Amino acid sequence: MITLDTYETEFGHIQIAKRRRTGAVLYEQDGCFQSEADSQGVSLASYIHAIFGLIQQSGARNILLIGCGGGTLATMLVRSGQNATVVDVNPASFVIAKIHFLMPDDVCCRVGDGKEFLRNNGKIFDAIVVDAYQGGLIPDHLQSVQFFNLVRDHLSLRGVLFINAHLGHAFDRRAKQIADRASQVFSKVRLLDSRGILERNAIIMAGHVDHLDPPQILLQPETGQAEIASELASLEFRRWDL
Q1: Which pLDDT does position 40 carry in this prediction?
Q2: CA 236: distance to chain centroid?
Q3: Under 8 Å between Cβ of 126 and 172
Q4: Beta strands 155-167; 200-207: pairing state
Q5: Structural domain count, the chain
């Protein structure tokens, strides 16, 4: 591993590194993995490809992303002809995403908290993605009933919400708890998760999500295609309300 750069920010220590064998670039903050991409900025994280595929199925054109990291999802969306707005509390994330992860200038970047952004912005989006973490956890205010009410008010008629939930073990109930709170606001909530994988990413989705199928890889990265495809194949819709 080659260290490319380090950043000391008010939100923690950030290290950017490159894998010697594949050339993949990694973003790590206070020991927590944030992003990994190939040399062209295409994500090497299967959950990013999952959300990207779900957004393509939804037909969303204008997407709000809460949480930047390396900006890989925004990069993939804009290169596919969609409009992406990214909100993050850490301005360093936008600098890193553009320098090390090739995030296009076409991505609209806004420094601030996602909930406050929605509260003070009247724009309507076709999809809203929550992938924001502090200390390895989604901030409480970005998974509250009050936040989901704000999200609903900023979604178009056929709009969709996607939340990335990192789960640490087989009995981790955080995704189900988020889904339960979302169900107090949205009439349709679904959980996309993997069986038999202990540490994993599950996706909670709400809104116009009835027709969505488990996603497949749509953008081929330079490396890791087989692993991403295998992890996507393990995803299935599961009951969250049992």
Answers
A1: 94
A2: 18
A3: no
A4: antiparallel
A5: 1
